[in-house]
Amino acid sequence: MFVHVIEAFGDVGNVMRPKEDADRINLALEDIHRKGGKILDVKVTMCRLPPTKANPDLSGTCRLYLIQYEAKKRL
Question: What's this model's pTM, rounded to 2 decimal places?
């Protein structure tokens, strides 16, 4: 089993960006599948980034997507 990680950081004030995130995940899933990998699971974790000096009143967000797949070798 192998993993592929997609990072998405710094969207000030937004927890998720559904279209952009979905497009990136779908491209990664298609690529793994096209190369012969079998998708086993996709997990997401979200976190809040602390405000910056430039935007002291707004927090940013981060999202980490973990795609678990099975293949003969890392793709």
Answer: 0.74
